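Hello,

Our lab assistant flagged a job as stuck in the queue for most of the afternoon. It eventually completed. Since we weren't sure the result was trustworthy after the delay, we are filing this so someone can double-check. Below is the sequence as submitted and the structure that was eventually returned. Let us know if re-running is recommended.
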Amino acid sequence: MKHIKATSVLLSAAMCMSIMMTPAAVLADETPAPSEEQKTEETEKQEPEATEPKATEPEAEKPEETEPAATEPEETKPEAEKPGESKTEEPEATEPKESEAEEEGSEEGEPQKDKTKARDEKAGLCGKTLNWTFDGSTLYIGDSGAMSNFSRDDNTNLVPWYEHTGSIKVVHFTGKATSIGNYAFYGCNKLQSVVFDNPDSMKTIGQDAFYGCTSLSDITITKNVTSIGAEAFYCSGLSSIDFSAAENLTTINSSAFYGCEGLSTVSLPAKLEKIGDSAFNGCKYLSSITIGDKVSSIGEYAFANCSCLSTFKFPNSVTTIKNNTFENCTSLGDIDIRYNVTSVGENAFKGCTGLTDINIGYKVTSLAENAFAGCTAITFFKLDAKLYTNSGGEKLLKASPNSIPVFLTYAEKDSIYDVGDFQYKVTNASRNGSGTVTLVKQLNMSLTDVTVPASVWIEDCSYKVTKISGSAFKGNTAITTLTLGSNVSTIDSNAFAGCTALTTVSGGSGLTTINTRAFNGCTALNSFKITSSKLKKIGSYAFAGDTQLKTIYIQKTTKLTKKGVKKSLKSSSVKTIKVKKAKVRAYKSYFAKKNSGKKVSVKK
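-- returned structure --
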């Protein structure tokens, strides 16, 4: 066996020929001929690798040490082959399936892994109960619940679709997501539309959610969204924002729509309370914006650099105009700072070069000297006298911006003003809150339900309506109900005489005097309930001819005197007067026939 094995290892091409010519001799020497042929075939297979015999000969002697294992030739073949084979070839022989995969596509093997990886990255979770899938252009957000908040700087908290940011064209919320997380679609510059299958489920839009989405031209803020995060739509391509359904939106945070140059008009929802710093800063083509009366806070720079904004009306709920709020709004032509505004901050209107008219109300108690810095076109400046100078007599605005004369606002006594449905006469021109007016007459004669206001605005000041003038509504046959304001103290003679359709009179918590024939000839009047505790006088014939009026309610009144009700019920149909319990005995004598003109029942 040794001889044969050695011969098989050291065979040359000539010896191979001699063995092929004399097979019988070989068979006579060694009976295990099949092993010799197999080994001969193996050597032939190995001949391409044995082109350098010097390198292989030393390795061929190693099997002599493992000769005992050759008693079973078929099992020793692998051991004999190992020394001559490279380490990289061994796994190809023992794991043919893997080697086939590598041989078939050594170039395709790696791409195969990349495709699997890419496929895995096109679906996953984006919240505890939200999932996402991406089909190459549309990103689908499914299931319900809140979306996770992400980051743009922390590589461990990037959005799961980060690799597809530049390919997303549509975001489609197919389920009931309740929030859009921070940085959710940051930098998706090809995003064109956002679709909600269940829009009412959405409640919040996170910080930087659509930052830099330059292809997104319009967005609808859905019904139950309560807040829009800081920089949510920063420098996006928005040209239209639909707030019509956003009935629960209360907060727009800082820089939410910063630099949205495509916006031209915006109508904010009625329940909005806060507009953050720089919320619309840099929206240079924004020409008009409508704000509801619940907005109490407008941040610094909120509308700065909106160079096309031409008008702005402050809601009654705003008390402060903060620093730089309208800086460089070069198209603003006039500004009316009245009603409840109390302070105007530093550079509030700096650089508003188109501003010509300024009207500042009497409630403004703090006005920064540079509030109108650089407003070079001002020609009219209307300012309250007490604000124009400080306690030392120094002019706060130093003769106003650009040395424009300041027009001090006030209302003169006895001057007449038409306000709303009525005409008023100034009876006290004081601007410290104690000014008063008398309602002179009705201007809108079609009114059926008349409410006399507690106060009215005249020349930037609030005046209390304390009196209804004689004959103010006389002969008006359209009025059916009358509600008196809390500051009305006097209803003068014949004020409502001949109002034949009037059925109900109520209110008047401050009423002290009803003069002669005030409600004479109100033939339909059947309910008269005054809530005042201060009523002192009901004039003669006050309810004469009021055939339907059976009961008068003055149950809070404590100030009436015997003289104050003289002949008050004469020619009336009143049978009962309801008064305060403690006053029943006293008022019975007051409303005796000899005193009031008619005996009536006085009850509590």
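-- support follow-up --
The delay was a queue issue, not a problem with the job. The result is valid. The first strand starts at residue 123 and ends at 125. The radius of gyration is 48 Å.
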